[in-house]
Structures are given as structure tokens and as C-alpha cells.
Specification:
By secondary structure, this protein is mainly α. It folds into two domains: 93 residues, Helix Hairpins (Orthogonal Bundle); 54 residues, no CATH class. Helix content is 83%, strand content 0%. The chain is built from five helices and no strands. It is elongated and about 145 Å long. It is found in: Endosome membrane. Pfam families: Snf7.
Length: 203
């Protein structure tokens, strides 16, 4: 919550990769400068040729050719750097995978230790002993009860069975509702009239 997060550790491999990428970026910037020079020398050669200065145009083209050679060299250096960065990064992935495999193998070995034949046999023996112990307790309880106590236990068992059966029937029996009346409802005036007639017949 309030604790500071641990900063990731920078390894020597991380620094090496960073340095290589910085060199790569510098080479790319250098290539851009060379390309600008190439375009400029090309324009100078065209202008000098148009002005009738053939020798100056030739010098501009020679300078341009020299810069093209530098550009080719930087292309090769750039390719080597990128391959080296890719190789290092892939090697680090391989190391990580290898470390994961080692950990997985260690976990499997521990599991196999827990699941060896002796452990399984011991577990089966303990389970058999537990069943035998329970059987002995059941026999002891059965043999130590009097006939009246055994009859009382059986009667209590039947009572519990009857309660369970009764509860199950109540759950299955649908709730019965009274039928809806079919006669026409009697108005309040008709009810009063019938009551008067009933009282008159009694007097």
C-alpha cells in the first residue's frame, strides 16, 4: 500500500544491450548526415556543370562517391550491431527458459519423492488400519449394548427414518388451494332482504 516499489535490477547484460543500441542510433544519425551530403554534392555537380565548370562538377561527384562508400560501410556496421543485439536478447531468453526448465525439473523431483512406492504403500496401510480400527469400535459398541439398548437404538433409527420420509413427502406434495366459488356473488341489499325474511319466518 504505502511501501515503495522495488526498482528492477539492471544487469551487465542490460547495460551491454543499451550500449549497443546507443551505438546503433548514432550510426543511423550519421547515415542521415551522409545522405544530406550526398544530395548536396549532387546538386553542386549539376550547378557547376550547368555553369560550364566541368572540373568542379567532377570534384563534387568524387566527394559524393566517397560519401557513398562511407554510407556502405555504416550499413555493414549497422547490420552487425543489430544482429549482435538480436543474438544477445535471444540468448537471454534461452537462459530464462533454461532456468524455468531447471525449476520445473526440481519441482517434478520433489513430487516424485512424495509419490514413491514406499509412500503409497504406507498410505494404503494407514487407510486399512483406520478402517480396521473403525470396525473394531463398531463391534465393541454392538457387543457392549444390552438387548434393550439395542432395541432403543433401532427404534430411534426407525423414528429418524420416518421423520425423513415425512419431510420428503411434504416437499413433494403440492399445496392444495380451495376451489374458486361458482355462484354469483350476493349484493348487500339481497343479503339484508334474505335476513329479514329469515327473521319473519321465525316469529
Amino acid at each position: 500500500m504505502g511501501g515503495s516499489q522495488s526498482t528492477p535490477k539492471i544487469t551487465a547484460q542490460d547495460r551491454a544491450i543499451l550500449d549497443l543500441k546507443l551505438q546503433r542510433d548514432k550510426l543511423k544519425q550519421y547515415q542521415k548526415k551522409i545522405q544530406i551530403i550526398l544530395d548536396r554534392e549532387h546538386e553542386i555537380a549539376k550547378q557547376q556543370l550547368a555553369a560550364g565548370h566541368k572540373d568542379r562538377a567532377l570534384i563534387a561527384l568524387r566527394r559524393r562517391k566517397y560519401q557513398e562508400g562511407l554510407l556502405v560501410k555504416t550499413d555493414g556496421q549497422l547490420e552487425s550491431l543489430e544482429q549482435l543485439v538480436s543474438t544477445i536478447e535471444f540468448s537471454l531468453v534461452e537462459v530464462s527458459v533454461l532456468h524455468g526448465l531447471k525449476q520445473g525439473n526440481a519441482v517434478l523431483k520433489e513430487i516424485h519423492k512424495e509419490l514413491n512406492v514406499e509412500s503409497v504403500e504406507r498410505l494404503l496401510e494407514e487407510t486399512a488400519e483406520a478402517r480396521e480400527y473403525q470396525r473394531e469400535i463398531d463391534n465393541m459398541l454392538t457387543n457392549n449394548l444390552s438387548l434393550d439398548e439395542e432395541d432403543a437404538v433401532q427404534a430411534e433409527l426407525k423414528e429418524l427414518q420416518q421423520e425423513a420420509l415425512h419431510a420428503q413427502r411434504n416437499e413433494e406434495t403440492p399445496l392444495s388451494l380451495p376451489d374458486a366459488p361458482t355462484a354469483e356473488p350476493v349484493s348487500s341489499e339481497q343479503g339484508v332482504l334474505r335476513l329479514i325474511l329469515l327473521l319473519a319466518s321465525l316469529t
